[in-house]
Amino acid sequence: MPAYDYDLFVIGGGSGGVRAGRMAASLGVRVGVAEERYLGGTCVNVGCVPKKLFSYAAHFAEDFEDAAGFGWTVGARRFDWPTLVRNKNTEIERLNGIYRRLLVNAGAEVIEARARLLDPHTVEVGGRTVTAERILVATGGWPYVPDFPGSGHAITSNEAFFLERLPERVVVVGGGYIAVEFAGIFNGLGCRTTQLYRGPLFLRGFDDDARSFLAEEVRKKGVDLHFERDVSAIERRGDSFLLTLNEGSTLECDLVMYATGRKPLSADLGLEACGVELNAAGAIVVDGNYRTNVPSIYAIGDVTDRVNLTPVALAEGMALVWHLYRDHERPVDYEYIPSAVFSQPNLATVGYTEAEARAKFGDDAIEIYRSTFTPLKHTLSGSQEKTLMKLVVERGSDRVVGAHMVGPDAGETIQGLAVALKAGATKALFDRTIGIHPTSAEEWVTMREPVARADD
Predict the structure, then answer these.
(1) Are strands 399-406 and 387-394 parallel, antiparallel or unpaired?
(2) What is the pLDDT of residue 1?
């Protein structure tokens, strides 16, 4: 008789948990996966996938306007919010089914119930108690709304995907990528949209040139963007809300959405009772092999609050399975991880920001190549939208260590550059590469002269 009911028990059926559970089960490991909400986790259900679908929907308003410059006459237009939500729900349900089949077909048992640790080898789940040689926690994160008078009136991105009706006036509070994306979505779908951020410039951690450039483009598109503004109180006024801001002004709207960060979903899992170490933010502390201080308990993904991206959680799940069950080390390389903000226009990046590069390699060791231009499409569309491309080069090695873009389909372009940067491409290699004409992407290989620093 086996000593345990399972070899590996996974708590959390999101991207990382499903990948680890599926790959382990395919190797003959006895796997159980517990998920209390929805298979696929945040990304599939209330994150990446529905957000990108909503972003596509929001962009059609501009596409209709752009068409006129190319000779198209577009008739009366009307947007139906319930249709978008219904079609989105259908797609998400399809993906939920795919995640379930991936696990079941690999041989894992799926338990749709909340799981809680009782000790380092025992889990209470769905009214029963099971044991496992190893336990993996992959519960992800959850939106955080600060506590202040009236904060209970605010929604988060979780609820935004299921609104019964589209509001006329929306206030989005926050300066991270979720706030920026939803401000663009609401604005593109016809809402009068205001975005408030308490800091001097949104998207902290991204390249400063890209952040500033995007702020200008966002304002061009009609978002009422305010920095160094925060909400002190929210008061319901009938069907609307009155917001009191930190400097004393007021703002009325029909919906308040907070996107002010996410916290690791680690509470009430029994981690403390097992002695698992958590940091001050509630994230599970792990070593290089995703092991906690309790030898039988592991954690991956957003619950560890390190690099909170779906592809990273997937990679961590794979690395853990290879480490535990293939005796083969394939550690995740966290350098040169590309990412994109599906704002309007998109912002995408890979590698070091200019500030990070100067801090790491030395202030005088960095060269910057930057180009801003009007894409060919907009010479006829009449749109005032511009594109920014920027390369950060380490002078001694000539290696390109950062690439940043604000413009249409920036994520699609940066994904290709991520391969080049990961491979150690130099600026000379970029210069010797023939561009595809006429495209915006050819600008990456035609930037010949470094720009002077503003403070020079």
Answers:
(1) antiparallel
(2) 59
> What is the spatial distance between Cα 435 and Cα 431, in angstroms, rounded to a whole number?
9
Domain of 397 in residue numbering reads as 339-445
pLDDT digits (tens, 9 = 90+) for 255-310: 999 999 999 999 999 999 999 999 999 999 999 999 999 999 999 999 999 999 99
Half-sphere exposure at residue 41, Cβ-oriented, CA atoms within 13 angstroms: 27
Q: Which residues are catalytic?
A: 437
Does one domain contain both 222 and 286?
Answer: no
**Statement to judge: residues 276 and 195 lie in one domain:** no
Q: Determine contact, residues 412/437, Cβ cutoff 8 Å.
A: no
Q: Which residues, 6 or more positions from 256, have their beta carbon under 8 angstroms from its beta carbon?
A: 153, 154, 155, 170, 171, 173, 231, 234, 241, 243
- Please indicate, yes or no, whether residues 313 and 345 belong to a single structural domain of this protein: no
Q: Which value, to the nearest 10 degrees, does the dihedral of the CA atoms of residues 222, 226, 230, 235 take?
A: -40
d(CA 30, CA 6): 5
Residue pair 125/36 in contact (Cβ under 8 Å)? The answer is no
- Does residue 452 lie in a domain region? no
Query: For residue 329, what pLDDT is reported?
Result: 83
Number of neighbours of residue 110 by Cβ within 10 angstroms? 20
Farthest-apart Cα atoms in the chain, separation: 75
φ, ψ dihedrals at 172, nearest 5°: -105, 125
Q: Is residue 332 part of a domain?
A: no
**pLDDT at residue 418, as a whole number:** 98
Res 218: pLDDT:
98
